[in-house]
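Deliverable D5.2: sample structural annotation.
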Amino acid sequence: MNISIETVKTLRARTGGVSIMQCKKALEEAGGDIDKAEVIIHKYSGAVADKKSSRELGAGTVASYVHDNTIGALVLLSCETDFVGRNPEFINLAREISMQVTATNPTYCTTEEVSPKAKQAALAVFKEEVKDKPVDMQEKILVGKLASYFKDQVLMEQPYIKDDSKTINNLITEATQKFGERIEITSFARYSARN
């Protein structure tokens, strides 16, 4: 199949700059359909991120964002090597995440950080809300309500403020694919002069 360079460029722009060869391969697999190729790349990047999840983080960058001198955030975005840690695109990603933290004020980085006590408190409230639903549906509804409730509080699950079709987790996964290294938000802090 003959894939035009314009089609490859379009897919590359839509997937955050994944390599030209990976874009071409995904387009060939998708029979030239850009939408299908985008799904293939996202699926592949998730698998790549999973394979790299046990690698040691030894570098990174600290980025900040301050809005109107009254609210801001610091983010430590970690990677494996200084080569990636000093890359302007990597540094920009850290800044974008600090902007996200400034705008959304997340409580947790990942769902694993949500304490059992917080989950139990939310569960107690939601059990009251679903008590009149069919018993066989209650568990499924509770799972959905918990996920929805904590979605806004967990940074990795939040929709990206500049493109709500992606989550912060998607951005990290795409960056892992792009840079070929494990990437992780190690810590973040948000500050506000407002009470």
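Annotation notes: The CA atoms of residues 31 and 41 lie 14 Å apart. Helices lie at 5-14, 20-29, 34-52, 82-85, 88-104, 116-130, 135-151, 168-179.
The annotation will be released with the project's public dataset once the embargo ends.
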